[in-house]
Specification:
Blueprint: E1 14-15, E2 20-24, E3 30-38, E4 42-47, E5 56-61, E6 69-80, E7 90-96, H1 101-111, E8 116-117, H2 126-134
Antiparallel strand pairs: 1-8, 2-3, 2-5, 3-4, 4-7, 5-6, 6-7
Amino acid sequence: MSKYQPERVWPRLVPQGSVMVSIYGPNGNQAYGVITDVSVGGAKIVAGVGFPAGDSLLLRIGFDPDAPYSTSGRVIWCHDESDATHRASFSHGIRFMITDPEQEGRLRAILESPGFEQPVLPGQLATASKSSSSG
């Protein structure tokens, strides 16, 4: 099973620019990260601190820096992608724990904005995905 499988419960989107996130974990742990892809169901977040699977987090996502989007989430997986020449780097799969329909509606509206696009899958060129949607 490929991690690039297009049949997902919630289609993932890639932000066109950097989307920063403040992460608040258990026991007062705090980190900052960047969202690499996002959907209504969750996000992949890269941070300098690793949070173990199962941890409950509070996320403040900077889709709009003037009005951060806040939600709780649960770590589904964490991979240590650090190497000897770079700082610590941990990728996390986060499932959003959204229970308020208004909050989910706000997230859907954010993700439908022009700042997000479908990811480029292996073997495809980035320009191919844009040109196929314009014609």
